[in-house]
Amino acid sequence: MSTSVIVIILGSAALHAVWNAIIKGGTDKLLETSLKALGGALLMLCCMPFLPLPAPASWPFLAGTACIHLFYYLFMAYAYKSSDMSYVYTLMRGSSPLFTALFTVCILGHFLSPGGWAGVALLSSGILVMAFDSLRRDDFRFAPTALALANSLVIMGYTVMDGSGVRLAGEPLAYICWVSFLNCFPITIFVLCRRGMKAYFGYLKARWKYGIAGGVCSAVAYGLAVWCMNRAPISQVAALRETSVVFGMLLAVVFLKEKMTPTRVTAVFTVLIGAAVMRLCS
C-alpha cells in the first residue's frame, strides 16, 4: 500500500469522525442528523447529471438501503442525545465488524482463522472495558448503549445491501451518489412528521452550514474509501479506516470537551486493534 493511499484512508477516517462530531455538537441531534442527510443529498444532486443511471437490477437495493439508513440515522441521533460521542461512536464502529464476524460464523458457517478469533476477543474486551468504565464512573446508560449496539447491526445490514447493489449497478460511482441522495428522504419525512415544518426550517436556517459540512464530509469520506479499495486490498483499507475511533475520541475531547479517562483510552485502542486484526485476518 502506497503512502498516498494510506494518507487518503486516514483522511477518510477523520472525515467520518468529523461529521459524527457535528451531529453530536448540534443542539437537536435528530434535526442535525436530518440536515447532514440533506447536505449529502445536495452534493450528490450536483454530481448525478454527469453520471449514468444505475442499472435497474440495483434499484431494489437502493430502496432497501434508503429504508435501512432511516434506522441508522435515528439510532445515532437518539444515542448521541444521552451519551458521549467517544462512547457511542466507539461502540457503533467497533461492534459492527464483531457482529459481522459472529454472523458469518454462526449463521453462514464460515471459517474464522485464529487471527480472526483474536480480533473477536480484542473487540469484545474493548467494548467490555468501555462499559466497565462507564459503570465505574456511574454514567452508564442502557438506552444509548443498546442503540449504539443496534446501530452496529444496522451498519452490517446496509453494508451487505450496498455490497450487493453496487455490483449490479454497472457504474459504482452512480450507485454511491444515488444512495446518498435517496437516504435523505426517509429521515426528512420522519422529522417533518415528528417535529413539524416550523421546527425543521427554523433549525435549517440556523444550522444549514453545519448540515452542508456534515453531508460533504460524509460523502467525501465514503468516496475516498471506495477509491482506495480500487488501489489497495479491501481488508487493509477497512482495517486502516478503523482509525476513525481514535479521531472520534480526539474530536470528542478537543471540541466537545468530553472527559477522557485512561481506561476509556485503553478501550478505544483495544477496539481499534481488534477491528484491524479482524479485518486483516479475514
Which range best describes the helical content: under 10%, 10-25%, 25-40%, 40-55%, 55-70% or over 70%? over 70%
Terminal-residue CA separation: 18 Å
The number of helical elements comes to: 12
Overall mean pLDDT score?
A: 89
Low-pLDDT residue intervals, each spanning 5 or more residues: none
Beta strands, count: 0
Tally of discrete structural domains: 1
> What would you call the shape?
globular
Rg, nearest Å: 18 Å
**Beta-strand percent range:** under 5%
Biggest sheet statistics? none
Structural class from helices and strands?
mainly alpha
Oligomeric description of these chains: single chain
- Please write the string of helix (H) and strand (E) elements: HHHHHHHHHHHH
Q: How would you characterize the overall build of this protein?
A:
The protein is globular, with a radius of gyration of 18 Å. The chain is an all-alpha fold and 282 residues long. It has one domain. Helix 2 packs antiparallel against helix 7 and helix 3 crosses helix 8. The protein has 12 helices and no strands.
Summarize the structure.
The protein is mainly α and 282 residues long.
Present the secondary structure layout.
Layout: H1 3-25, H2 29-47, H3 59-81, H4 85-106, H5 114-136, H6 142-168, H7 172-182, H8 184-195, H9 197-229, H10 234-241, H11 244-254, H12 262-281
Helix pairs in contact: 1-2, 1-9, 1-11, 2-3, 2-7, 2-8, 2-9, 3-6, 3-7, 3-8, 4-5, 4-6, 4-11, 4-12, 5-12, 8-9, 10-12
